[in-house]
Structures are given as structure tokens and as C-alpha cells.
What we know:
Elements: H1 9-17, E1 23-26, E2 32-34, H2 38-50, H3 52-55, E3 58-61, H4 64-76
Antiparallel strand pairs: 1-2, 1-3
Amino acid sequence: MKVNKITNAQEFFKVVDDCKGRVELLTGEGDRLNLKSKLCQFMSMTQLFTRADELHLEIVASEEEDLQKICKYLMKYEDM
């Protein structure tokens, strides 16, 4: 799923931490960051929360249930 700008890091990562499977951020350069890793969360914050609309970032979840959870969170802020 493509990612637009996310404004609340703490809330977003709480949703990610609640996921059962692997959740990754794919960058335009082909990097795969494990968003359940606190180090990767820290590293991704600059891109994910400020420039996501410019960088073609994508979130991939290994479990369908997790993907639905993340989609629900992102859709909540889509119209803001």
C-alpha cells in the first residue's frame, strides 16, 4: 500500500507494534525497513513523516489482518 504523509509517529507505530506479522517500509531505492524494529522506526521517521508523498514509499504487511489494520489507520487521516 502506498503511503502519504503520516503526522503522528507515536500513534502510527503503536498500530504497527500491534501487528502480528512482519511490517516493512519499501523505499524508492529498494530498501526494506522492518517497521517493528525500534531502530528502523527511528530511521524511517524522517522519510515517513515528512516526505512520504515525494519518495514513493510503500508499506507491506505479511498478514492480511495487519494490512487491514494499517489501512484502517491510514484512511482515518486521509481527508485531513
